[in-house]
């Protein structure tokens, strides 16, 4: 069932079930009452990543309290996306954009990776999570991806579960077409690794190419910014061996 984009959607952490009222957070109270000017009897859609999507009615037991009472499940909870997105942090504005697009494209886990030429940093995991939640609310997604703390590339690869294949965007790949490399992959559990704006170092590229569970892929003849490369790579992976098929 497709998402209803005419109703306001909110992510909550509470368990959702028919008749079980939950208290709106301070932020939700402000947004619904002061920004959207919603009142008693109006309805929103709630999701928590576990119980599907629910229609919930607003009620005000006092002027400063807002209850959200689920009364009907609109969509059941789907299986969460299983594609892991590994990325070198970018500068703040472009990092926010990249995280939002990764969520829209079906990433199930966001893993910042510190590489030799990384130019950005993760100042706040809470900000990453907030961007992921905002993207899910706006795009009708019912699962919010896990957000992992940053790790050095070498440390991440040292204990990587080898049943999950890593596809890394290799700007020095001898080909320009990613489809032959992708079509040869048989694993269903996948991760995408996109490097920093300065690219991977030679040592990092050599390490990645030496690992049996890593496949380098090209992204065409043009030089792409890291955030553009992320969207392009996620799209071609989902279309060829991911959940678009």
Question: Secondary structure elements and their pairing?
Answer:
Layout lengths: L8 E3 L10 E2 L2 H10 L7 E5 L5 E10 L2 E11 L7 E5 L4 H13 L2 E8 L10 H15 L6 E2 L3 E2 H6 L6 E5 L9 H5 L6 E5 L7 H8 L4 E4 L8 H15 L5
Summary tags:
five-stranded mixed β-sheet; seven-stranded parallel β-sheet; elongated; 25% strand; single chain; 245 residues; 7 helices; Alpha/beta knot; alpha/beta; 2 domains; Ribosomal Protein L25, Chain P
What does this structure look like?
The chain is an alpha/beta fold. Strands 6, 7, 8, 9, 10, 11 and 12 form a seven-stranded parallel sheet that branches. It has a five-stranded mixed sheet with strand order 1-3-4-5-2. Strand 7, helix 3 and strand 8 form a beta-alpha-beta unit. 31% of the residues are buried. It has helices at 26-35, 92-104, 125-139, 153-158, 179-183, 202-209, 226-240; strands spanning 9-11, 22-23, 43-47, 53-62, 65-75, 83-87, 107-114, 146-147, 151-152, 165-169, 190-194, 214-217. The chain folds into two domains: 9-75, Ribosomal Protein L25, Chain P (Beta Barrel); 83-240, Alpha/beta knot, CATH 3.40.1280.10. The protein starts with 8 loop residues before the first strand and ends in a 5-residue tail after the last helix.
- Strand residue content: 25-35%
Q: What's the CATH architecture of the largest domain?
A: 3-Layer(aba) Sandwich
* Topology as a string of helices (H) and strands (E): EEHEEEEHEHEEHEHEHEH
CATH class of the largest domain: Alpha Beta
Low-confidence stretches: none
Global shape: elongated
Helix share, percent: 25-40%
Q: Main beta sheet, described?
A: 7 strands, parallel
The CATH superfamily of the largest domain bears the name SPOUT methyltransferase, trefoil knot domain
Write the CATH fold name of the largest domain: Alpha/beta knot
């Amino acid at each position: 069932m497709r998402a209803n984009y005419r109703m306001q959607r909110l992510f909550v952490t509470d368990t959702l079930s028919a008749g079980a009222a939950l208290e709106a957070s301070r932020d939700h109270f402000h947004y619904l009452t002061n920004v959207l000017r919603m009142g008693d009897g109006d309805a929103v859609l709630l999701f928590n990543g576990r119980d599907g999507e629910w229609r919930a009615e607003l009620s005000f037991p006092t002027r400063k309290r807002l209850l959200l009472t689920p009364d009907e499940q609109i969509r059941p909870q789907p299986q969460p996306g299983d594609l892991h997105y590994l990325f070198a942090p970018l500068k703040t504005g472009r990092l926010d954009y990249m995280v939002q697009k990764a969520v829209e494209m079906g990433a199930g886990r966001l893993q910042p990776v510190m590489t030799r030429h990384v130019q950005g940093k993760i100042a706040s995991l809470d900000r990453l999570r907030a961007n992921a939640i905002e993207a899910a609310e706006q795009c009708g997604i019912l699962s919010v991806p896990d957000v992992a703390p940053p790790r050095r590339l070498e440390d991440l690869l040292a204990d990587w579960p080898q049943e999950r294949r890593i596809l890394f965007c290799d700007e020095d790949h001898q080909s320009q077409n990613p489809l032959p490399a992708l079509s040869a992959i048989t694993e269903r559990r996948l991760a995408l690794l996109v490097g920093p704006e300065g690219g991977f170092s030679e040592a990092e590229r050599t390490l990645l190419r030496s690992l049996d569970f890593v496949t380098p892929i090209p992204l065409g003849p043009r030089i792409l910014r890291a955030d553009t490369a992320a969207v392009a790579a996620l799209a071609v992976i989902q279309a060829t061996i991911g959940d678009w098929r």
